[in-house]
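Sync notes, pocket subgroup
Present: LS, DG
LS reminded everyone that the earlier model was apo-only. Rerun requested with NDP included. Inputs:
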Amino acid sequence: MTLIDGKKIAKEIRFELKEKVFDLRQKYGTVPGLAAVLVGENPASQVYVRMKQRACEEVGIYSVVEKLPAETSEEDLISLIERFNSDKKINGILVQLPLPEHISENKIIETISPSKDVDGFHPVNMGNLVIGKETFYPCTPYGILELLKRYRIETKGKHVVVVGRSNIVGKPVANMLLQKKEGANAIVTVCHSAAKDLKKYTATADILIAAIGRPKFITADMVKDGVVIIDVGINRVEDKSTEKGYKLVGDVDFEEVSRKASFITPVPGGVGPMTIAMLLQNTYESFIKSLNL
Ligand code: NDP
């Protein structure tokens, strides 16, 4: 069994980007820029935004973080995004989700210019993804494809079973793997909570992608020998032996399933670190596109 080390790969990607950003500075006297917008005090969102900002600093990407109070109006948030849309120093805009209830997430996502939508959530980019046109891939699915590529895991003609159909993970990763392209070209099945006998599908997977949000939900009896496991889930479970009183586990029962798997991502340290690395990658790609070379 090979452990897919997302932490290591994410570090490699950041290192590669650091060199590329350095070259851009030498050549053009400027670097890619990312604007992050955080509305409210959600502690997890604060941590994510801080991590993204730190990652930008590490690779030399210019970053701006706008922290707005929870009672910010939808109109004010829209005005801020419009300002970033026309700011030449900004190549990527991300609005940290979830937003307070009085703000429509869809409206906000649709305000971001598709050319700066480095989260890849805008309907234009999602549509381009489905029809196989060049676009921004959502960061977590992009990270999954990158892990498969860098571990030379064949996807062509393989049966990929995705459990979960969210707009940020399940649907985009399924559509990306379906494309008639290198690093994809898979036979894809997507499962969700209406599946009556989930095991019937998961047991036929060559590659199983779990994006469910339920701790240790995928058990050894649900997969075949030699399966490749990509565990997207991040779940807190109580653990009194740790300082924080909890630990993070995936959607897959790692201990049991890893005995049958040929490759498996751990949680933490698997898919998680890739998400931010691919956000930086998208920001870099957006800058390159803006040069119109
Ligand atoms: P959502 O809650 O949006 O979606 C969960 C999906 O799982 C839904 O499609 C749901 O089906 C399906 N599901 C729930 N229960 C079952 C069941 N019993 N059988 C089959 N399918 C089921 O979650 P996300 O996609 O946003 O996230 C999934 C997990 O990945 C979470 O743990 C999240 O924290 C983590 N995550 C990790 C990221 C990373 O960077 N590594 C990034 C994003 C998410 P239905 O549609 O029918 O409700």
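DG: The chain has ten helices and eleven strands.
LS: Residues 139-272 form a domain with the Rossmann fold fold (CATH 3.40.50.720).
Action: DG to write up.
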